[in-house]
Fold this sequence. Notes:
about 0% helix; mainly beta; 4-stranded antiparallel beta sheet; 7-stranded mixed beta sheet
Amino acid sequence: QVQLVESGGGLVQVGDSLRLSCAASGRTFSTYTMGWFRQAPGKERELVAIISWNAANTYYADSVKGRFTISRDNAKNTVYLQMNSLKPEDTAVYYCAAGSRETYYQPTYYSPRSYNYWGQGTQVTVSS
């Protein structure tokens, strides 16, 4: 079992930056694909970014490419999402998720159903 706890959300202005953190329990964090998803009101949960178990590979949704950076520190059991140049359309609840080591390499990497563990979410609101 893995428990995930997100932090770092808040209310910011257009163009500001935020860094989300997700702390994981358990000794096997380093074997998991880690992802950040977001869900805006009335919309489906969507993939924002994922990182492979060894941090060798990352993937970003087109909407955040060049503005967001995902990273992980396996020694600290933590994954991060650095968000720069925030826009109103980035407003959502952001969720941290953990999948298997293989999840990153599977064709269903983008689907929330491919991830076994989820955090409770943290609200990000970008005001114009």
